């Protein structure tokens, strides 16, 4: 499994991804799922991936090596596409190209062609945007009403986001909330594990602001986990006992 | 969907169930999923159900009207079985009997034979126990290591239980934590909805202690929701901002 979350607030974008991959419980490894493509001052793009690792690695390779534009015939890469909307279409085309090459054979072997990606970033002259791209290559975009998107094992970490994240949440606060959401997921699902990669991009900065790997020795994250646990304990202890009897 | 949770602590047993059923988003209704079978001073048994409503209603009817014991040929009901372990086997037999009558036809119509039940209670002379019975009629039991069992849409409400519930948690505290878990689930999944039925059984009391339906006007539950939200807000606000930069 995997858990990745992207949060798009007025101040900027937060992307968080775990690094655990597994093919069965007895085959666990660490792979980076959060990827950064940056030409400082011109574009900053991050992609988080969930699903079949062979598929997502192929898609990432295609995006940097290039995919031919079906109309112009030109070789495009993630560093040349002029707008974020076109980048989302490009990611979709790369996924469909991998499906064309491997999809049928995978299905013959009962391996599901399963990949979803969070794509966030900004190209000079355009807006900072956040998309979720599906296995079919189609995609949706986060909006002010629903400022976060999740892929992978999303349910355990959703309640805190539902309660606390709005598009007016500050960038640092959004990063904190994303880490709380990741912590809840790691505690409840063995398929999601440390280290955790985080990135933040401030709106119109056209450069990554935070790009950091949180490992088991990370003091801030360990402190956040402890504070959150202690606060939850205090919170339910402070609620008065239920007054119910037999109706 | 459905969300039901049973928590077995040293002091007793908590059972909580929502009441929403749906066959598609445009066909939503309220059905009781928490059922009580009591002969005060002799036995107190509660059952919470998830899955296909036609199946779970048939199973409940069989349990009160009676199923023939395959060995003795006698008609047994949930009020006559002598131990909780035998009650769990009996619930399994009732599920298999419903499968025998309806299972094949349901599968022909692409309806899945899908039912899970939480069974908790005590029969005089035996222990207070909590089981989860599967569609195949087999079952597992909660233990001191894992004192709670969930059926239905269980992921949203699991983190708080993972963090806070142990077998030493008090009965009233366990009820509170179960309600927090239900609140998180209701907020994140439209298929789980009010009213919520709760029951508690104190160990060796052989009678239900709390049996209550929480509706939208329930002051305690509304207060719990507000306090919990406010405490979560305060909790993440109190965590210092992340110190991360570019590695």
Automatic annotation (TrEMBL), chains A, B:
Keywords: Hydrolase, Protease, Proteasome. GO terms for molecular function: peptidase activity. One of its GO terms (biological process) is proteolysis involved in protein catabolic process. InterPro entries: Ntn_hydrolases_N, Proteasome_sua/b, UCP009120_prtse. One of its GO terms (cellular component) is proteasome core complex. The keyword Nucleotidyltransferase does not apply. The keyword Hydrolase applies. This is Putative proteasome-type protease.
